[in-house]
Design a protein that fits this description.
Layout: E1 2-3, H1 22-27, E2 34-37, E3 43-45, H2 53-61, E4 65-69, E5 72-78, E6 83-86
Parallel strand pairs: 1-6
Antiparallel strand pairs: 2-3, 2-4, 4-5, 5-6
Length: about 100
């Protein structure tokens, strides 16, 4: 269920930092799904991925809201409130994204 979030003011229009999980691309690791930080544009992998880079980004920065990004899904998640949040629009992908089979 989508709810109001106390951290909605942290949501910005952002440019994605990479065409895949930024850290996984550097180390050659696969991911399951991608998450986009709606504060700064960092692209990280989801918690079902081996490295959980989106959550690590939140832990390092405190940026609270991510968007389901691969494919752009239009939903958000607030780490602080632990709630799904409604986003005004989907962030378009910056180009083709590598697929792991």
């Amino acid at each position: 269920m989508v709810q109001k979030c106390a951290h909605a003011s942290a949501v910005s229009d952002v440019s994605p930092s990479a065409r895949g999980c930024e850290e996984c691309l550097k180390i050659g690791s696969p991911w399951v799904h991608l998450r986009l930080c709606r504060t700064c544009g960092h692209v990280g992998c989801c918690d079902d991925s081996p490295n959980r880079h989106a959550t690590k980004h939140f832990q390092d920065t405190g940026h609270p809201i991510i968007e389901g990004y691969d494919p752009p899904e239009g939903w958000g998640w607030c780490y602080l409130d632990e709630k799904f949040v409604k986003l005004d629009h989907k962030t378009p992908q910056a180009g083709p994204i590598k697929r792991w089979v």
